[in-house]
Write a structure and sequence with these properties.
- There is one protein chain.
- Helix content is about 75%, strand content about 0%.
- The chain has about 350 residues and is mostly helical.
- The protein has one domain.
- The longest helix is centred in the middle third of the chain and has 28 residues.
Length: about 350
């Protein structure tokens, strides 16, 4: 148990946080929050996993070998990110204490606790967890049917996205069964990351009154908890399919894209700050789309139109085409995914 707790803190908190330190240095101090750095770190980690997973899958690398290689990769990158961003460690910001912030935090904690006792019996979960469990126990990737455990051919439509394998990787790193990892640990992490994104969206929407960010977060909680009017709403996905790839796209990747778009609408004091923010904007859009590709094949289909329309609106408002140009690299991972799907179909 103590070993699992230690490994969980290391691979689920310390390493992702380290990955997010260097990219966050392009944020202004008032936006450089530890929670936001953790969100960035997880998106970068998902993107990096897809980059290593696809060559490993094509080369026939075993699952546990992939886990070792990826831990080595992100361990080095996390350390390098922390070293190069160490000067900014003293310039973190923390939320100002207020009533709505405490209410928001309490409601999020209640959702995390409720998440531990909730069971899900949908077919998508059987496939997602079945894929993770097969990889975790058999040391193979997508060569066993997740429903029956029988040997089958490689299903490229699903295999190009590493959502289930990423869950298995987390289980392998922490030495925890994939079902426990998904339903309890990973689910709570994703819930917290989701609400961190919306809290920071609230901060951008109400820059002069920070307590409104907590109130905005509470309103998001209301829509999530009471949003089960259909099985397809973001709230239903968040609270019933938290760990599944489509839920990660809907409740982490899409809110983070909105955060980036709102960030670009802020007025900057100098041209240098704008250039730095534009670089941050383009790089993280790229990483977010790649993370979406990693989670599910619907990622690029949903994220690209959102980014294209949003970047065009921001560019028109700022009267700077460079904002739209900064979003163009995000097309690369989505296009590559479509090409691979066409070739390997």
């Amino acid at each position: 148990m103590l070993t699992t707790i230690f490994l969980g803190i290391l691979w689920l908190l310390v390493i992702p946080f380290g990955l997010g330190i260097f990219p966050s240095k392009l944020l202004k101090k008032e936006n450089r929050y530890p929670g936001l750095i953790l969100v960035i770190g997880y998106l970068v980690m998902m993107a990096l996993f897809e980059c290593l997973y696809l060559p490993a899958l094509a080369a026939g690398v075993k699952f546990r070998t992939l886990c070792l290689l990826f831990r080595l990769l992100i361990g080095i990158l996390s350390l390098a990110s922390a070293v190069f961003g160490v000067k900014d460690l003293k310039s973190f910001s923390l939320p100002k204490k207020n009533l709505w912030l405490f209410v928001f935090a309490a409601v999020v904690v209640l959702q995390c606790v409720a998440r531990w006792f909730q069971g899900v019996t949908d077919g998508d979960d059987a496939f997602f967890l079945g894929t993770a469990l097969n990889a975790y126990t058999s040391n193979t990737m997508y060569y066993l049917d997740p429903y029956t455990g029988m040997a089958t051919g490689l299903d490229m439509r699903h295999a190009l996205s590493a959502g289930g394998i990423f869950l298995a990787y987390l289980s392998n790193s922490v030495k925890l069964h994939p079902t426990i990892m998904a339903h309890i640990v990973y689910a709570d992490i994703l819930l917290i990351l989701h609400y961190i994104c919306f809290f920071h969206i609230g901060k951008l929407l109400f820059p002069d009154k920070e307590e409104n960010a907590g109130l905005f977060g509470c309103m998001v909680c209301v829509f999530d908890v009471f949003g089960y009017i259909s099985i397809f709403t973001p709230g239903a996905f968040l609270l019933t399919r938290t760990w599944q790839g489509k839920s990660v796209i809907a409740n982490l990747c899409i809110p983070f894209v909105f955060f980036l778009l709102l960030l670009m609408l802020q007025e900057d004091l100098t041209k240098k700050q704008f250039r730095e923010k534009r670089l941050f904007f383009g790089a993280l859009l790229f990483a977010t789309v790649l993370a979406g590709v990693c989670m599910a094949g619907t990622g690029p289909i949903i994220l690209l139109p959102l980014i294209a329309i949003g970047a065009a609106v921001v560019a028109a408002h700022r009267k700077k085409f460079s904002v739209f140009a900064a979003s163009l690299p995000a097309v690369v991972p989505a296009t590559a995914f479509m090409i691979l799907l066409a070739i390997w179909k």
